[in-house]
Design a protein that fits this description.
Elements (H helix, E strand, L loop, with lengths): L1 H24 L5 E6 L7 H8 L13 E5 L3 H11 L3 H13 L7 E3 L1 H10 L3 E6 L8 E7 L1
Parallel strand pairs: 2-3, 2-4
Antiparallel strand pairs: 1-4, 1-5
């Protein structure tokens, strides 16, 4: 009887640990697509087309420069929820574009690097988690649940 209780207790602890680890590795907050003051507001479709390399310039002719977060759950959420594909498909898409001579992989930076790139580079777009402090010259282009 005592062995059954121990196994049951161990099972419950394992289950709770699994839920905790899942909660720690998933990202449930909003994403902020950011750009410099020169970048126009964007729709979700605009962002998708930008991050798939289909929209390469803004209406005024400024080239789009895209930045993504280094490997993170936030990056996976962005690719899945905004672009509508898995992270492996995103990488494969950009690798095939690079091999076809249609551009290279988006540059990966940490949050601070993305904010700095967006602040100083004309036409730069990136994404960060909600609550990230943004300096003057950087604006939120789109909020994504």
């Amino acid at each position: 009887m005592k062995g059954c209780i121990n196994r049951g207790f161990t099972g419950i602890i394992g289950f709770l640990l699994g839920i905790t680890l899942f909660a720690l590795t998933s990202y449930a907050g909003k994403l902020l697509v950011i750009g410099g003051s020169d970048v126009p507001s964007l729709t979700k479709d605009d962002v998708k087309n930008i991050y798939l390399g289909f929209k390469r310039t803004f209406p005024d002719g400024t080239p789009v420069r895209i930045y993504v977060l280094k490997e993170s759950k936030l990056k996976e959420k962005f690719v899945r929820d905004v672009i509508g594909i898995q992270i492996t498909e995103f990488r494969a898409h950009w690798l095939s574009k690079a091999l076809a001579g249609e551009g290279g992989l988006p540059k990966e930076l940490d949050e601070n690097g993305i904010i700095e790139a967006v602040r100083r580079e004309r036409g730069a777009v990136g994404f960060v988690p909600e609550g990230t402090p943004l300096p003057p010259g950087v604006k939120v282009l789109l909020e994504i649940e």
